[in-house]
Amino acid sequence: MNLLTFKGGIHPKEEKFYTEDKVIREMPRPTKVVIPLRQHIGAPCELKVAKGDNVKTGQVIGNSPAYICANVHASISGKVVDIASMPHPILGHCLSVIIESAMEDKWVEVEHYRDWEHLTNEKLRMIIKEAGIVGLGGAAFPTHVKLSPPEDKPIDTVIVNGAECEPYLTSDQRIMIERAKDIIQGLRIIMKILSAKKAFIAGEINKPSALSLMAKASKGEKDIEVVPLKTKYPQGSEKQLIKAVLNREVPSGRLPLDVGVVVQNVGTALAIMEAVVLGKPLIDRTVTVTGLAVKEPQNFRVRIGTLFQDVIDACGGFDKEPGKIIMGGPMMGIAQKSTDVPVIKGTSGILVLPKKEVNLSHPRDCIRCGRCIEVCPMRLMPNMLGILVERAKFDEAKRYHLLDCIECGSCGYVCPSNRSLVHFIKLGKFKISKK
Amino acid sequence: MDKLVVSTSAHIKDSDSIPRIMWGVNLALLPVLIAAVYFFGLYALGVVLSSVISAVITEAVIQKFLFKKPVTVSDGSAVTCGILLAFSIPPSVPLWLPAVGSFVSIAIAKQCFGGLGWNVFNPAMIGRAFLLICWPVEMTTWTSPLDGVTGASPLGILKEEGFSKVVEFFGNRTTMYTDLFIGNVRGSLGETSCLLLLVGACYLFYKKYISWHIPVSFLGTIALLSWMTGGDPLFAILSGGCILGAFFIATDMVTSPVTKTGQLIFGIGVGALVVLIRAKAGYPEGVCYAVLLMNTLTPLIDRYIKPKPFGVVKK
Q1: How many Å separate Cα B199 from the centre of its chain?
Q2: Contact B12 A243 (CB under 8 A)
Q3: Interface of A with B in 231-250 (CB under 8 A)
Q4: Which of A61, A190, B24, B41 is the most exposed place for a label (fewest CB within 10 A)?
Q5: Could A409 and B16 be called an inter-chain contact, meaning their C-beta atoms sit closer than 8 Å?
Q6: What does residue A265 show for φ and ψ, rounded to 5 degrees?
Q7: CB contact (8 A) between residue B21 and residue A420
Q8: Is residue A99 within 8 Å of A74, Cβ to Cβ?
Q9: Number of helices and strands (H, E) in chain A?
């Protein structure tokens, strides 16, 4: 079979065997959660509770009048014991609400609609906004914004992203296997809001059972099609996914909606279904806890705000001395300096690499082998971007399309000189944004 | 737990590295070395060792005492340079000659430009060009394989007396092609045996250390231009340093363009210059100068031949 894909990319070891056959389990409720007020792209939330307040699970503890923002909810019921700046897996530190768990898990009542078909699109968007849903693939962009394209840009196609191309991670795969029907229902809600005529559910061929279960769940629905994709990193990157499925190229500096497409992660589709049909705000998510240094790797349903240490302990703790702890996958994840950080909405995985798997070799100068150019899915010249940023030639780097980089890390993965190309690129983007 | 490593993604890396690639190239050159010892005797091994030892010592001394930087000779790149220089000079040179050549290669062509990755010219070819200018007699004294009798190389005969004399020299065309292919001819130490060079090249292809673009465009251009100018295309490819140059010298990552399109242009340029030098210049062979001349164009090629980024429309 000739599988769909994009040009460039790499084939890192998949390493999904740790957790791909493990059923998603509910992680025991933690005794304490630390919920940052900023877990998404956009404006930070304003605090809606005070120290000493009793809160229920699902209660809004932070929101904002800003449009690009996502509500933050209490993920357990209990007492707000402190409001303080706490460690954050992306931002370093962030104002957070610390809740100590009560004996019972009491939920707030949220309106929900088993027969949502008759609701207006405005109402549906409102429910999604209230539920604080963001893109769960990792970028954490508020979903209600993504579902509100400008009127002059009609959306004809929705793609549900089940590529999960990052090595190690299996949460999307497990969701597809265990919650296929619910994902389809979430997709139906998305299609209604966008008035999209066609939808694709796309996944890499290395998850055959997930794809066949999705196909089974969408059987008889003519406007939903399951497409198997070649297993290649970064197949799940939005632009590469659209290219593979529809052969449309999102113009430089533009968004998928400019080519009539909206992409949603499978986890996001599920969260939308849970918000609309079950009235459940985004207070937990599926997290793959994995790596050679974890005793019992798991796919866990974890309450937002649970500390990494508690999650790892629930997996039996460390099996070997950890060398690196990464939020997300090994290609794009963020290395953590401690386990005191909480699981946030964008935490797709917790990967613990033992010392011997940590790459500590020194970088050398570029030997111009050109491999980074070969693998770059954006067809950039990472070799030049690295050298130019190293020499603080940011304008020149911009002319080499620095800002088009999606930071997938394929260039650094293949670099024989072991250069931290993504590091240079991120630094370059930061410096340009400060100008 | 107090010592977690924090760094930017990606957190995993494939297994290739500079040492792996360079030692891989050295391994690919080993069969040719064996052929050289077979055809030209143990003295050939001495020439290679002299060149390699000089290259390694020069690099180590410069890095340690002059630049006070980490010494990186274990990455194998100085060894590669030493081997390639020895392979491109006559097998009967005095042993001090390759040592001087390697010194020039490493000190002038490599370290003066900033070390591995920054050299504009192929270091081994700079060393060879230097030796040819300074010691023209030693550098053009060719000995026969096995019996060691000195005389002209096939390309020398072609230059002075024409192609029919070349065929006459070998006896007939079939013997000519066979001898050239196996390496039973006068020529530089490591360039005569096309067969074993190709064995090494296959390894480089298998390891993806080289791609087809430069060798094919290089050899294709030579064959095409020789045929168009009334020469024998197969003889043109099999003689002199073409095979060594096409697979091991012009393909040097540092001094050739980074894009595949750029590499095609580079290969065509080298091929055309080889034919031009062989036909019109004073030297019978031109691979070394052709490569060096195209090295000067590499930065220019890289400036103009760039991939078209995803989603960018050409204005």
Answers
A1: 15
A2: no
A3: 239, 243, 249-250
A4: B41
A5: no
A6: -65, 155
A7: no
A8: yes
A9: 13, 17
A330 at interface of B, judged by CB pairs closer than 8 A: yes
- φ, ψ of residue B246 to 5 degrees: the values are -70, -35
**A168-216 tens-digit pLDDT:** 999 999 999 999 999 999 999 999 999 999 999 999 999 999 999 999 9
Position with higher pLDDT, B159 vs A23: A23
Tell me the per-residue pLDDT of A418-427, one tens digit each, with 9 for 90 and over.
999 999 999 9
Nearest residue in chain A measured CA to CA from B16 = A416
**Neighbour count for residue A247 (Cβ, 10 Å):** 9
Nearest chain B residue to A321 by CA distance is: B1
Q: In what order do the strands lie in the sheet with A60-63?
A: A46-47, A60-63, A72-73
The alpha carbon dihedral of B165, B170, B175, B179 has a sign of: negative
Say yes or no for a CB contact (<8 Å) between A337 and B4: yes
Interface test with A, best of B8, B71, B72, B263 (most A CBs within 10 A): B8
User: Mean of the pLDDT values across residues A299-307?
Assistant: 97
Rounded to an integer, the average pLDDT of B260-280 is: 96
Between residues 354 and 373 of chain A, which touch chain B (CB distance below 8 Å)? 357-362, 364-370, 373
ipTM (interface predicted TM): 0.93
Give the mean pLDDT of chain A. 95
Which is it for strands A284-290 and A261-265: parallel, antiparallel or unpaired? unpaired
CB-based contacts of A140-144 (< 8 A; 24+ apart in sequence): A140/A39, A140/A40, A140/A41, A140/A70, A140/A344, A140/A345, A140/A346, A141/A40, A141/A41, A141/A42, A142/A40, A142/A41, A142/A42, A142/A68, A142/A69, A142/A70, A143/A70, A143/A264, A143/A268, A143/A271, A143/A272, A144/A70
DSSP string across chain B: -------PSP----S--HHHHHHHHHHHHHHHHHHHHHHH-HHHHHHHHHHHHHHHHHHHHIIIIIS-----GGGSHHHHHHHHHHHTS-TTS-THHHHHHHHIIIIIIIITTTSTTT-SS-HHHHHHHHHHHH-HHHHT-EE-TTT--EE--HHHHHHHH-HHHHHHHHSSHHHHHHHHHHT-SSS-TTTS-HHHHHHHHHHHHHTTSS-SHHHHHHHHHHHHHHHHTTS-HHHHHHSTTHHHIIIIITT-TTTS-SSHHHHHHHHHHHHHHHHHHHHHSSSS--HHHHHHHHHHHHHHHHHH-----TTPPP-
> What average pLDDT does the segment A9-29 reach?
96
Chain A contact present for B315, CB below 8 A: no
The pTM of the full predicted model, rounded to 2 decimals, is 0.93
How many whole angstroms from its chain centre is CA B21? Answer: 16
Distance between CA atoms of B246 and B270, rounded to whole angstroms? 9
Query: Cβ of B11 and A360 within 8 Å?
Result: no
Q: Do A325 and B4 touch (CB under 8 A)?
A: yes
What are B156-176's pLDDT values in tens digits? 999 888 899 999 999 999 999
Alpha carbons B78 and B84: distance in angstroms, whole number: 10
Region of residue A68 (phi > 0: left; psi between -120 and 50: alpha; otherwise: beta): beta
> Is A11 near chain B, with CB under 8 Å?
no
